[in-house]
Amino acid sequence: MEAAFQYVNEFRENVLGFCNNIYNAEGGTHLTGFKTTFTTVMNNYARELGILKEKDANFTGADIRNGMTAVVSIKHPAPRFEGQTKTKLDNQDAAKATGKVTGEEIVLYFDRNLEVLKSILACAEKSAKIRKTEEKAKTNLLTKQKYSFDSNGKLANCEKRDPSVCEIFIVEGDSAGGSAKTARDRSFQAILPIRGKILNVEKATIDKVLANAEIKTMINAFGCGFSEGYGNDFDITKLRYDKIIIMADADVDGAHISTLLLTLFYRFMPDLIYEGHVYIAMPPLYKAMPSKGKEEYLYDDKALERYRKTHKGPFTLQRYKGLGEMDAQQLWETTLNPVTRRLRLVEIEDARMASEVTEVLMGTEVPPRKAFIYDHARDAELDV
């Protein structure tokens, strides 16, 4: 039996099992023996060092393995596998063998490397705290009625209960939210106003994320749970709306708010994006009102240039600085009406690149973000 493990700065575990050099995708008894023994030994150390008091419950296996990347490989003369796919080892003696070796060897290592041990236990202690915070937050969410207004009474829900036809608009600001509530088709369109820029989840700890009022309101409204760490109760089949539409102003602040919301969805509800449920509304920047002829909405500066080249005669140009400047009828025509509106579907083509760019642009490290901005300065479309 051979095993190697390392802790990395990620909020998950990645433990792989091999038997006779064949990868066991579903794990098996060899991984069970390794995980169980590792958890037991680490809890014993935690009590010996006073990290866990007498009245404290043990750390869970997930607490201790949070951030662990490990490979467990065994050689077995007569391996037996479960199921038709043969990807899960079923030999009970494998659990005993891996447990015995793990229990002997990690004690020898940690007795000589006390600082490494303390670092791992500190991470386990933090993970346990986050898990308890998350469980408490979920309990609070589950006690709420299924189709209710949020605690602040801001969610204006729709009348229909068939998720395939329902859509929810996340609207920036109370003024735009008020117009949207008036303009919407209340039979299938729900409106959720948010207060400005939400928490940047890429920089925040999970307990702060779960404590944020705007994020809790969205979790409650969507109804499909929250995917992070230990709870991992996200279930896309429980989503109450087929379309989640981000409706922000067509300016830099609006783009920033959209980015913060997309970061939240990508990090904690990624299936919303992968399954094609997240959209960005495209409100117009201008309204051209000619002295003769039909008024026309223009959605960007290029459309304005084309209009100026093709339109003959004088016209008045109105620039919309925000959604709140539109009346209910204009908001319905440009942004809410399924027949005339423009929506942009949010898609992920390269998951690894998306993760790396999100970390650079929204994370805590400033130098990589500065370098990225310098490298791509000429690609920016400035709103000046």
Account of the 3D structure:
α1 (29-48) packs parallel to α3 and α5 (174-183) packs across α11. The longest helix has 29 residues, at 114-142. A hairpin with a 2-residue loop joins β2 and β3. It is built from 13 helices and 14 strands. It has helices spanning 29-48, 61-65, 92-112, 114-142, 174-183, 206-211, 213-222, 252-268, 270-274, 301-310, 328-336, 351-362, 366-375, and strands at residues 2-7, 14-19, 22-24, 68-74, 81-82, 88-89, 167-172, 189-194, 243-247, 278-281, 286-290, 296-298, 315-319, 343-345. It is elongated, with a radius of gyration of 27 Å. The chain is 43% helix and 16% strand. It has 384 residues and is an alpha/beta fold. The strands form four sheets. It has a five-stranded mixed β-sheet with strand order 8-7-9-10-14, with helices on both faces. A four-stranded mixed β-sheet has the order 1-4-2-3, covered by helices on one side. It has a three-stranded antiparallel β-sheet with strand order 12-11-13, with helices on one face.
